[in-house]
DNA sequence: TACAGTTACGGACCGCGTAAGCATA
DNA sequence: TATGCTTACGCGGTCCGTAACTGTA
């Protein structure tokens, strides 16, 4: 078994089982990949891919296991090279971030702007998706940092560090009946059509559940994936928007009336995560700290090495997270 | 970077930085190892080992990082080969177990006897040591299963499954003043010289702490690493023995008087652990179940995949662990 | 016919083993 | 002088790229 074979295997798996495409990405010839893949399968004694005719169509169960472990091997090899680059003081490399729309659209732009002046030679890769898509990217591709909210169960292999709190805000057009009410109740909210996010998570903090507890049946007029769409329809007068606080900017959205809703809905925490045991380059530490100033290298290292949940929680006990 | 280079590196690290010894274990020539090691260092751009003259004397900090990750890579590669062996239905392989004296001497013999009839072709490697030594073996060498008690913080990368409870017993020679007392108190115990284990862990359940709570200052006459030594000195009349329940056998030790001490000292749990994400061969599952019948494959798999502590604990909530 | 993977073959490269060289105790 | 690492060199294997071949849509 050679590292090259595992590289080829991973590339084929990551390119829709297309050997030709994989070969191109690897800057090598197609027969080279084909042959090494076959050699690997021969050595293992079973097929990693199911072939119908000559095209690869499916991954065998054992094959999936092999692919998963091959990717881990390659990750670790990358990390070894990273140690080398780090020691040479290289401020170049790749920083690949997986995140959700809200972070990518409203939170990260200034962070990335500052980061880029600090590390102009780091190639940034931003991968946007739902939590589920990001979780898959984490296990399949190579994502260095993950920034998201809630649903930590989706990311078992990651160390998750809390970045900041946020709450929901109610948004109405000027002149709306709710515009002058400082602290609307759920009942009052329920009187108007509601425009909010697609309910991706169904925990006790989800909107329907909270309305249900107050015996209010919300009239959800429209659900969207992202805040811009929601704001657009609020502007059209289609209803009352409920969205994340950091998606709103008093200046940018001065045609709308913003009403805090932290008395109605629990606050959430956005975290940043990285693979346990993964290598953090200097620039990754710095990126994290630009996003969340309280997360300095020392704290990150301690959190990554915390041996249990209690030790981990103790690290953050004294820290007041910012609100956004 | 080649897998071979990482193999050579690991072998050198595991053989006291002796290239010649490593080469022998690898069944290759000494210059081959020397050259590949050098090539690897060249590629990385820094020294993994500190050379004084021509002999390797120390590991550089970055070198240690590289070694750790190289070992992970090799582990994963072994796992891939294991997938292959498993699929071929091979009942052969290596099962390397790290454990403490008490387990190795009193608990494992019947387990291993039964296991060997089931899997005659599995090469068993038993590594005995203190918890600390085992922890080091887990990270350096290749230990498949770890069996120990307490101090779970020493093993952050392992999944630990509870096997059985045990408690402490008091042992005195026939005719000793305590021999007829069913439930001695700590005060009574404190009146005699005590012979027990070296206090390796200093938690709230450690013997000195428990005595201290009762305002008793025990007179510890002798501490030993293993139960046999303790029993020997109890037989010589040097004092009262306090040791683990499974280290005593009413038949074998019928010249001694055994007194339960679970009313004085909290009970402990012995667990079996394996690296998170590691490959478990069929025979490993079976070994675990021979040791702890409640740990069937299904339960082990679920525990290994549990995403958080709560989910993990829930799996064992309904299970009554045996006492030994 | 176009497309995707396999087979065939020559050349470059690489890693190994043997043998000799060179530091340190 | 013994031990242990490094350098030198020739051989054999391996991997790659080009080119020709073979199944599918």
Summarize the structure in short.
2 copies of one chain form a homodimer. With 324 residues, the first copy, chain A, is of the alpha/beta class. The first copy, chain A, has helices at residues 3-14, 19-25, 30-44, 61-87, 101-118, 131-140, 186-189, 207-213, 227-235, 282-291, 297-305, 309-316; strands spanning 49-52, 55-59, 93-99, 122-128, 145-149, 158-166, 168-173, 193-197, 219-224, 240-244, 256-260, 268-275.
For the residues shown, what is the average pLDDT of chain A?
89
What is the count of β-strands of chain A?
A: 12
Strand order of the largest sheet of chain A: 4-3-5-12-6
Query: What is the percent of helical residues of chain A?
Result: 40-55%
**Residue fraction in strands of chain A:** 15-25%
Uncertain stretches of chain A: none
Helix/strand class of chain A: alpha/beta
Name the biggest interface. Answer: A-B, 32 and 33 residues
User: What would the principal axes of the Cα set say about the shape of chain A?
Assistant: globular
Topology pattern of chain A, helix = H, strand = E? HHHEEHEHEHEEEHEHEHEEEHHH
């Amino acid at each position: 078994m050679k590292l090259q074979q595992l590289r080829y295997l991973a590339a084929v798996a990551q390119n829709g089982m297309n050997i030709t495409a994989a070969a191109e990405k690897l800057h090598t010839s197609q027969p080279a990949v084909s042959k090494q893949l076959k050699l690997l399968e021969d050595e293992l004694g079973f097929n990693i891919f199911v072939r119908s005719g000559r095209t690869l169509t499916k991954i065998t169960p054992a094959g999936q296991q092999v692919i998963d472990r091959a990717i881990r091997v390659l990750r670790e090899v990358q990390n070894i090279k990273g140690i080398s680059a780090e020691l040479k003081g290289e401020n170049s490399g790749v920083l690949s971030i997986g995140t959700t729309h809200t972070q990518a659209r409203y939170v990260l732009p200034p962070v990335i702007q500052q980061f880029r002046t600090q590390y102009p030679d780091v190639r940034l890769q931003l991968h946007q998706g739902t939590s589920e898509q990001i979780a898959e990217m984490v296990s399949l591709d190579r994502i260095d940092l993950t920034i998201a909210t809630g649903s930590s169960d989706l990311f078992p292999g990651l160390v998750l560090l809390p970045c900041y709190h946020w709450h929901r805000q109610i948004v109405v057009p000027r002149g709306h009946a709710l515009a002058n009410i400082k602290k609307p109740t759920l009942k009052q909210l329920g009187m108007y059509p509601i425009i909010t996010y697609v309910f991706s998570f169904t925990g006790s903090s989800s909107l329907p559940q909270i309305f249900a507890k107050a015996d209010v049946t919300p009239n959800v007029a429209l659900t969207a994936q992202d805040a811009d769409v929601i704001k657009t329809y609020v502007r059209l007068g289609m209803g009352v928007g409920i969205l994340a606080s950091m998606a709103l900017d008093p200046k940018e959205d001065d045609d709308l009336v913003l009403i805090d809703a932290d008395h109605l809905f629990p606050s959430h925490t956005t975290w940043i995560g990285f693979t346990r045991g993964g290598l953090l380059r200097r620039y990754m530490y710095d990126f994290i700290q630009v996003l969340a100033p309280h997360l300095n290298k020392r704290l990150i290292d301690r959190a990554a090495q915390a041996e249990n949940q209690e030790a981990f929680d103790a690290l953050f006990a004294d820290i007041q997270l910012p609100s956004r």
